[in-house]
Design a protein that fits this description.
Elements lengths: L3 E8 L3 H12 L4 E5 L5 H5 L2 H18 L15 H25 L3 E4 L1 E4 L5 E4 L5 E11 L3 E3 L12 E2 L1 H4 L8 E5 L3 H12 L3 E6 L10 H13 L3 E4 L3 E7 L2 E6 L3 E5 L1 E4 L3 E3 L32 E3 L10 H15 L14 E3 L4 E6 L2 H6 L4 E7 L4 H6 L5 E8 L5 E11 L6 H9 L4 H4 L11 H10 L8
Parallel strand pairs: 1-2, 1-6, 2-3, 6-17, 8-15, 9-10, 9-15, 10-11
Antiparallel strand pairs: 4-5, 5-6, 7-16, 12-13, 13-14, 18-19, 19-22, 20-21, 21-22
Length: 468
């Protein structure tokens, strides 16, 4: 077996892996990217992209259903989810081909197979036909991603018990669904299923849905869900289920029961470190399966890094991108700054959308800050009124200065129409440690949804316009 030699060998072609490959190849490094499925990883094929396509289907359905409000009479809409599934497939395939072409254009060698790092720091690749080859790199990047977590007694069968993987392959919407888990993914599925006609019950073991979100934001989502008929139950444990014809009965709480056609298990994702490391590799894995790294994404083995969902950082595609870029800068010995995980942008695409970065109000107080807080609802925003989406608010948390004024921004939390597209200026403001006095100098276009952020920040200077 002849070894193939590269500057960098990457195991895993998801966001963290392919970002490192593209960035490294642009810097002139020879790169081998090992992927057992298709480049793009969970995000492109079984996560971000397909899920958002289905959420867009739900958005279009809502628009048509409510079109009479605008004087447009389209009748009672119906859903052929198989068509949406086909459209999703086309979008994913187009993006996959584009990504694969870009990688080839950068001279990245895509190696099809399952990679394992050996004790001598080389990478063994088992190909689909059983043939084994070996790659040698001066540097190795582990980026094998994650897989859906399961819970005892709810083994996925692809028909009644579903994880996110199986949901994204459905060709019809079940008439009734229990979603177990009220985090970002669970809320997105609950929102989408409800909008497309399913009767939805959302069960969350924690005291509130959307853990990590500011409570004011989470409360808006809960009220919207309940108004649309979604049953939201928090602080309840799921105890099991009893299969029945064409569905199952889910048992939760104090022996409460609900009959449904399908169950979506959405309790997070686990690192996919199975068979990633040969015995004696020297790379440490914690009790949860995450590869241990320092702030520079370095493992305990010289020249070996890990990025993306395989490490215990926020499981977000854009965080994987940033970590992949950071590693290549480290390899190139270029100036670099570790990722500040406290202030990464978070986006949740349920209806209404959620977007935030930085500290919650509770988190800032717990960290010892005196804070100044302003909130502005979207109800007073002209563009929100025009598009007919007025539920939601912008909440800004700033550090209180010694003279009682609002100093640097600590957190920005949004819920409402298209807030995932509005978070950029808030993210930059927080990471540049900008103050309301500085931010308020910039003009917001009118009419725009982003005016609400501008108005809220302006109010923190002590002289607001529409908000006091």
């Amino acid at each position: 077996m002849v070894d193939e030699e590269y500057d960098v060998v990457i195991i895993g072609g998801g966001p963290g892996g392919y970002a490192a490959a593209l960035y490294g190849a642009a810097a002139g490094l020879s790169i081998a990217l090992v992927e057992k499925d298709k480049v793009g990883g969970t995000c492109l094929h079984r996560g971000c992209i397909p899920a958002k396509e289905f959420l867009e289907t739900a958005s279009v359905y809502r628009s048509v259903k409510n079109a009479a409000e605008f004087g447009i009479f389209a009748g009672d809409p119906s859903v052929d989810f198989g068509i949406s599934q086909d459209r999703k497939g086309k979008i994913v395939e187009q993006l996959f081909r584009g990504l694969a072409g870009t990688l080839r254009g950068r001279k990245v060698t895509i190696v099809s197979g399952t990679g394992k790092m050996l004790a001598d720091r080389s990478v063994e690749v088992t190909h689909d036909d059983g043939v084994v080859s070996r790659l040698v790199g001066e540097f190795v990047i582990l980026a094998s991603g994650s897989a859906p977590r399961s819970i005892p007694g709810f083994d996925p069968d692809g028909k009644v018990i579903l994880t996110s993987d199986e949901v994204l392959d459905l060709r019809a919407i079940p008439s009734s669904v229990v979603v177990i888990g009220g985090g970002a993914i669970g809320c997105e599925f609950a929102s989408m299923m409800s909008d497309l006609g399913a009767k939805v019950t959302l069960l969350e073991a924690m005291p509130a849905i959307l853990p990590g979100c500011d409570k004011d934001v989470a409360n808006v989502v809960v009220k919207s869900f309940e108004k649309r008929g979604i049953v939201v139950r928090t602080g309840v444990a799921v105890k099991g289920h009893e299969p029945r014809a064409n569905g199952t009965t889910v048992i939760f709480g104090e022996n409460e029961r609900v009959d449904v056609d399908a169950v979506i298990v959405s309790v997070g994702r686990r690192p996919y470190s199975d068979n990633l490391l040969a015995e004696g590799s020297g790379v440490e894995v914690d009790e949860r399966g995450f590869v241990r790294v320092d702030e520079w994404m370095r493992t305990g083995v010289d020249g070996v890094f890990a990025v993306g969902d395989i490490v215990a950082t926020p499981q977000l595609a854009h965080v994987g991108f940033a970590e992949g870029v950071l590693v290549i800068k480290e390899i190139m010995q270029e100036p670099a700054v570790p990722v500040d995980y406290r202030n990464v942008p978070w986006c949740i695409y349920c209806h209404p959308e959620v977007a935030f970065c930085g500290m919650t109000e509770e988190g800032a107080v717990a960290a010892g800050f005196e804070v100044v807080v302003k909130k502005d609802p979207f109800g007073g925003n002209g563009r929100a009124r025009i598009v007919g989406e007025t539920d939601g608010l912008v909440k800004v948390i700033a550090e209180k200065t010694s003279d009682g004024r609002a100093g640097r921004l600590l957190g920005v939390h949004m819920v409402g129409p298209w807030v995932t597209e509005q978070l950029g200026q808030a993210y930059l403001s927080i990471n540049w440690e900008a103050t309301p006095d500085e931010i308020s100098q910039f003009i917001q276009p009118h009419p725009s949804l982003s005016e609400t952020f501008g108005e809220t920040v302006l109010a923190l200077t002590g002289r607001g316009l529409h908000i006091g």
